[in-house]
Amino acid sequence: MTSTHHRKSPPTTLSLRHAFEVEQARREAERYAREEADRRQQEEDLSRAEQLYDALIADPAFLGAHKLTVDWRRYSVHLESADFRIRTYFEAGQATITVGDKRNVAVSATPAPLKSEQAESVADALRVVAKFLADEIH
């Protein structure tokens, strides 16, 4: 009795081309997911900057009484007087608030930051801006 043993072929053929295409598709999907997450984060940061800007300009009489101006540039909101600039920058879900003295700026148009704090929310950022403002307006 001679038995012939037939070799079973694997269910799918191994293919470098197929493995490469699967890897390329996986990388593309990861890249797209990262880009979407970045885009959503940027939209959130932009929205937070807009919310802070709206809160700062809500009381023009207060701003006028203290000779303050408010400027909004994308992710950055500035509260300024002739003597100082309080800058809030939103990035990656956080706000960085700095205050700079404009009184002794000889060369640079950008005042060097004297103090800096981080904030997790627009409400926290507004609280820090108010604290820095209170420090500057005696």
Give a summary of the structure in a few sentences:
The protein is built from three helices and five strands, in the order H-H-E-E-E-E-E-H. The chain has 138 residues and is α+β, with helices and mostly antiparallel strands.
Give a written overview of the molecule.
- This protein is α+β, with helices and mostly antiparallel strands.
- 46% of the residues lie in helices and 24% in strands.
- The chain has three helices and five strands, in the order H-H-E-E-E-E-E-H.
- Strands 1-2-3-4-5 form a five-stranded antiparallel β-sheet.
- A hairpin with a 3-residue loop joins strand 2 (76-80) and strand 3.
- The protein is elongated.
- The model has no long low-confidence stretch (mean pLDDT 88).
Query: Based on CA inertia axes, which overall geometry fits?
Result: elongated
Structural category is: alpha+beta
Radius of gyration: 28 Å
Low-confidence stretches: none
| Strand segment count | 5
How are helices and strands ordered from N to C? HHEEEEEH
Spatial ordering of strands, largest sheet = 1-2-3-4-5
> What portion of residues is helical?
40-55%
Q: Based on the structure, what is the oligomeric state of the protein chains?
A: single chain
Provide the residue-averaged pLDDT: 88
Largest sheet: 5 strands, antiparallel
Percent in strands? 15-25%
Ends: how far apart?
Answer: 107 Å
Helical stretch count?
A: 3
Characteristic terms for this protein:
single chain, 138 residues, alpha+beta, five-stranded antiparallel sheet, 3 helices, elongated
